[in-house]
Each structure stands twice: as structure tokens, then as C-alpha cells.
Amino acid sequence: MEREIILSEVQYKAVRSSGAGGQNVNKVSSKVVLSFSIEESQGLNDEEKEIIKQKLNSKLTTEFVLILNCDEDRSQLKNKEIVTKRFIDILEKALIKPKPRKKTKVPKSVIEKRLKEKKSNSEIKNNRKKLDF
């Protein structure tokens, strides 16, 4: 993953924020929408593209375009920084390969301890029974 190339391929669009906010919300386009096409990216190799398509399947459109929004701040510049940071984090997390799980064997001492506990429990319960004379 080549970060500089990817960041140059990202497209930003400023949109009016929705919801409450008084008179300012009707005039200022502070919400930022980031869109990134995975298919057309030069910063990702084919293997990385496939991994991203699988892991981010629910966040992609049918044309494999990732769209992120940010309207947390009143400043368009800050929203752009936030959404860019979020975009990089999402891509990096998607490309992390999980470590393979190593099977571990249960130690003999643990098995013996469990069996001993079971045996003592059964003896306690057997002693509660009424004796037949």
C-alpha cells in the first residue's frame, strides 16, 4: 500500500450538513464526503485489492467504491482531516494479516486435577445417601 498515491486518488466533496444547527447550516457546506475507487487505484496491488474487497464488503458500493462522511466539526478543513485519517485507518486495519492460531495441548497435571476433583465430588455425594442395613 503506497499512501501518497492512494491519497492523491481520493476524491473529496463538500456538502451541506443535515440536522439542526441554526441559520449557519443552510449556508455553509461543512460536511465532507470522501470517495475512493478500489478497482481504479494505482497505490494498491491486486492482492491488496482483493483483501480489501473481502474485508470491507459491507462498506463498499456495487462498483467497489468506498464512501465515508464526516460532519463532526463546523470546519470543513477539520472534517476533511478527520475523514482522511479515518480512511487511512480503515485501509490499514483491512490489510493486517491475523496471526495463525497455534493449538496448545492441555497439560497432564490439569487433567489429573480435574479428575481428582470429580472423584472427590462423587464421594461427597455418595456419602449423603442413606445406607441400606
UniProtKB/TrEMBL annotation:
<dbReference type="GO" id="GO:0072344">
    <property type="term" value="P:rescue of stalled ribosome"/>
</dbReference>
<comment type="similarity">
    <text>Belongs to the prokaryotic/mitochondrial release factor family.</text>
</comment>
<dbReference type="GO" id="GO:0043022">
    <property type="term" value="F:ribosome binding"/>
</dbReference>
<feature type="domain" description="Prokaryotic-type class I peptide chain release factors">
    <location>
        <begin position="16"/>
        <end position="32"/>
    </location>
</feature>
<dbReference type="GO" id="GO:0003747">
    <property type="term" value="F:translation release factor activity"/>
</dbReference>
<dbReference type="InterPro" id="IPR000352">
    <property type="entry name" value="Pep_chain_release_fac_I"/>
</dbReference>
<dbReference type="GO" id="GO:0004045">
    <property type="term" value="F:peptidyl-tRNA hydrolase activity"/>
</dbReference>
<dbReference type="InterPro" id="IPR045853">
    <property type="entry name" value="Pep_chain_release_fac_I_sf"/>
</dbReference>
<dbReference type="Pfam" id="PF00472">
    <property type="entry name" value="RF-1"/>
</dbReference>
<protein>
    <submittedName>
        <fullName>Ribosome-associated protein</fullName>
    </submittedName>
</protein>
